[in-house]
Amino acid sequence: MRVAAVLPGDDRRRDRDRVSSTRLNPAVESISAFFPCYNDEATITSMVNAASKTIEQVGADGELIVVNDGSTDGSQEALEDLADSLPSLRIVVHERNRGYGGALISGFTAATKQWVFYTDGDGQFDPTELALLVEHASDDVDVVQGYKIGRADNLTRRIVGRVYRRFVTFLFGLQIRDVDCDFRLIRRSLLDEVRLTHTSGVICVEMVRKFQDARARFVEVPVHHYVREHGQSRFFRPASLVRSLWDLVGLWVQFRVRR
Asked: What's the CATH number of domain 2-258, 3.90.550.10, 2.40.340.10, 3.40.630.180, 3.40.50.11010?
């Protein structure tokens, strides 16, 4: 596996200028952009609109997908209203919550374009920075992987996130710097080669490790991370952390057995 990295700019304005000046990349003809959505009524509309405009800006043929993973707020109504004005939007509905990994698997399955972009629907990443990923895609790259310039979470979450990241990097031999940065542009053909099975947040570790095993070529690009202003993350709840630890053990055993 080959990993290349792009260093962050001196300031946010420089990155914004790069986004606005991005033009069509011949290596990126079409993009499926999808968002896993769980109770993201307050943010999902703006996220989808931003992705739609960015795909148009970079000159790619696009489709938009939102996986409504059993939301109990007004997310579905917001999405149906949005679909009236965005013909390229498809809504995949889970009647019951299937977990983060379950939402990603549904999104990957629904995506049909040459490249697949995804990020969360909660507003902690800026969909316009998809243009930065497109800029660094090429025929020699399979995954354009974002990494957070600075994590916009409280101290406890930053510490837990750092410990988790270092732990899984060591345990699974990961060769990227930020496995839990869910801001990725992935070649569709690579997803066709890899079977993902985990329905929890551990799917990110499973995905990167299986991409590595498939000899995928990565390039890493810095992206901004923002404070979550609406809703709450489920990952940091004690029950979720315990489940993630248990799932990591199962995933580790799975890879050991495959050897």
From this structure: 3.90.550.10
